[in-house]
Each structure stands twice: as C-alpha cells, then as structure tokens.
UniProtKB/TrEMBL annotation:
PANTHER family: FORMYLGLYCINE-GENERATING ENZYME (PTHR23150:SF19), SULFATASE MODIFYING FACTOR 1, 2 (PTHR23150). One of its GO terms (molecular function) is formylglycine-generating oxidase activity. The keyword Methyltransferase does not apply. Keywords: Signal. GO terms for cellular component: endoplasmic reticulum. The keyword Signal applies. Residues 27-311 form the Sulfatase-modifying factor enzyme-like domain. This is Sulfatase-modifying factor enzyme-like domain-containing protein. Pfam families: FGE-sulfatase.
Length: 366
C-alpha cells in the first residue's frame, strides 16, 4: 500500500479504533460535509454533456464509500444473497476488443458500428470480466464491473443500512474534496510532479494503451492513493461509477428532467455516470475531469462500469463534519443480508442483444 502523505493524514481525521493502518478492506467510508459549491464547469469540453456552466448547488452532509466497490465486496454480496446480475441474465456484456484473446475474438460475429472496439462477449460478467474463459480470482481488489444500474442499487442497499447510489451532486462534491473550480480531483495538472494520479489510457485510443500509469485495464481500487484531500480513491479513472441522477435532455437546463418522456422499460432509463475510466484518453473521452459526466441506459453493462455507494449521514456524523472537513469512518456492518428485491430488474431473457440500444450506450461512454 502506498504511504499516505502527512498532509493527507492531517486532513482526514481517523475515527478511533476503526482505522486499519496496514490493509484497507475497501469498505471504509468518508463523511462529507454539506454546503454550497459549484457543480460543473465553465471550461466546457463536451457541450452535449451539459457539463457547464458551473452553477451553485447545496448539499446536505452524506457518507460515501472511500473506494469503488471491489470484486471481493461484490462476491460477498452474491454469496450472501444469491443475486444474479443483469449481465448474467442477458448472458453477455461488452468488453474492449484489446482485452480479449484470439479464441474469444473468433467467436464474435457482431459489433457496434459506431464503437467497433466494444464487443458483446458471451458470459462476460463481474466474475468473468473477459468472458467465460476468464475469471476474477486474484483480482478481488479491482472494481466490480459489468454492473447494471439495478445491480449497483441492489449491492448498495445490501451493503449498509440506508445504502444507495450517490446523486451526481453528492458524487461531485466528494470528488472535488472541498476545492472549487479545479479540473481534476487533485488540482489542475494531470500529472503533478510528473506523477500519474489516475488509471486512464496512455497511447493511441483505441489501438494501443502504453500503460505508462502502470495499468492497461482495471487497477486495484487503491492503486493511486487518495486523489483529493478528503481521501477518496479512484474518483478519476479506473471504473465509471453509476449515480442516482437521471440524465436529462441536455437541450433543457440540466439537471431538470421535467418534460422528459419516461421510457416504457426501466432498463431504458438513462442515468448519469461519473469519473471516467481506464479507457479514457484525452483525444476521445476527456471525462476523468471532475465536472465531466455522461450516461448509460440502466441495463447497460460494460468492462469499465462499476459503482460506489452512499448513505445519509447520521446526526452524529453530521456533527463530525460541521467544521467543513471530511472525516473517515469505519466500515459499515457487513451486509444486512436481506436479499435485494429484483423488482425493476429487467428480464434478460426478454431483452437479449439489442445492438441499436447498446450502440447508443457505447457511443456515449468513451
Ligand atoms: C459464503 O457464505 C458462507 C456462509 O453462508 C460462508 O461460509 C463462506 O465462507 C462464504 N464464502 C465467501 C467466499 O465469502
Ligand atoms: C455461457 O453460459 C451458459 C450457461 O451457463 C453456457 O451454456 C454456455 O456454454 C456459456 N458460453 C460460453 C461461451 O462459455
């Protein structure tokens, strides 16, 4: 594990008795102070993403996972509940072509024209990230991916009392770490002192990832250390993270969804996702900026799409952050072991492979 800087330790008060100096178990959480801050940016890179102009928003104190949900945590959830993810119901998910070996590539006959590097791979899922022949063992510290919105919701509801996905406003509040107007979670320079701060793509997308940051694909959820002074890891790069905020027509003033026609199928609802991924390169997906946002339909699954969980702060936790500094708290009780409801989960058998719909999701994503 990387050594934490003295400044970071000073900024994050560790609750007595819960901090584990040597090995984080990736269930720690951070209480984020409420307040008013600027959401979005005036330096707009993608106008159609409605990422600007910056606008003041107010948020109540809340609690957010310090790390992306790891494969180990998700495995614990599946073991306790028997949950079956949507990718498993569908029987396939999208994987980047360069992550696949020749034997798998030869079985694939379909591709999405606008994003030909995304290939539908049989039996790809959180536990088989590159398809049936792959498995996640030895990668327990990596982010759980191929999660649909409903899968992420179900995990969060199980993982802690009151567990849920963060809203976009909460997510961005946490990722900014109390600093206004910055480009990245840690500041304005992508590589301060020439040091990589996030797992993104180096080289020519989508042909070659030189992995100068140390990782070609997903990385352990703590691989780059805290990315801001509140102690959050992986809010830039690694896996995209679902939020609880519905994506609105950018022609309307975001985030107002009034007037947007609700899709008939819950699986077609579009949700905001934040953070960018290990596939993001400035030339194509400059979305590891803290204000960046894009979307996927609820039932999308992909090799680079995961989550982190939030909950409301208790009154005691709210008092802890009155001074305006974030405070790390221990892990919640392991799961509440209540099998999640599958209501609203799309029936994979009915849906199957719908190239058109997923083409749209894929194109938004990178
Ligand atoms: C799965 O759950 C059982 C008890 O329900 C437990 O004995 C076992 O260790 C668990 N396995 C994992 C991998 O968590
Ligand atoms: C995918 O899983 C199904 C159901 O377990 C199985 O029948 C099928 O052979 C698997 N496909 C591949 C390519 O392994």
């Amino acid at each position: 594990m990387k050594a934490h800087s003295a400044a970071w330790l000073a900024a994050v008060a560790l609750a007595a008795g819960v901090a584990r100096a040597n090995r984080p178990d990736f269930r720690e959480q951070i209480v984020v102070p409420g307040g008013r801050f600027g959401l979005g940016t005036d330096h707009i890179e993608f106008p159609l993403d409605a990422e600007g102009p910056a606008r003041p928003v107010t948020v109540k104190p809340f609690v957010l996972d310090k790390y992306e949900v790891s494969i180990d945590r998700f495995a614990e959830f599946v073991n306790a509940t028997g949950y079956i993810t949507e990718a498993e119901r569908f029987g396939w998910s999208f994987v980047h072509e360069k992550a696949l070996d020749e034997a798998v590539l030869q079985t694939i006959t379909q591709a999405v024209q606008s994003v030909p590097w995304w290939l539908p791979v049989d039996n790809a899922s959180w536990s088989h990230p590159e398809g049936a022949a792959s498995d996640a063992s030895g990668r327990g510290s990596h982010p759980a991916v191929h999660l649909s919105h409903a899968d992420a919701d179900a995990f969060c509801a199980w993982a802690m009392p009151g567990g849920r996905l963060p809203t976009e406003v909460e997510w961005e509040r946490a990722a900014r770490g109390g600093k206004e107007g910055r480009m990245y979670a840690w500041g304005n320079k992508l590589k301060p002192r020439n040091k990589h701060r996030a797992n993104i793509w180096q080289g020519q997308f989508p042909l070659k990832n030189t992995a100068r940051d140390g990782f070609k694909w997903a990385a352990p959820v703590d691989a780059f250390g805290p990315q801001n002074q509140w102690g959050f890891h992986g809010v830039a790069g690694n896996a995209w993270e679902w939020t609880a905020t519905e994506w609105c027509d950018p022609a309307r003033p975001a985030p107002d969804c009034r007037g947007k026609q609700a899709p008939a199928d819950a699986g077609d609802v579009e949700w905001v996702k934040k953070g960018g991924s290990f596939l993001c390169h400035k030339s194509y997906c400059f979305r590891y900026r803290v204000a960046a946002r894009t979307k996927n339909t609820a039932n999308s699954g992909a090799y680079n799409l995961g989550a982190r969980c939030a909950r409301d702060a208790t009154p005691e936790e709210q008092r802890l952050v009155e001074s305006g500094s974030a405070v790390q708290v221990g892990a919640p009780e392991v799961g509440n072991a209540v099998p999640p409801s599958t209501e609203g989960v799309t029936d994979g058998a009915k849906v199957g492979y719908r190239p058109g719909q997923h083409a749209a999701a894929g194109a938004d994503e990178l």
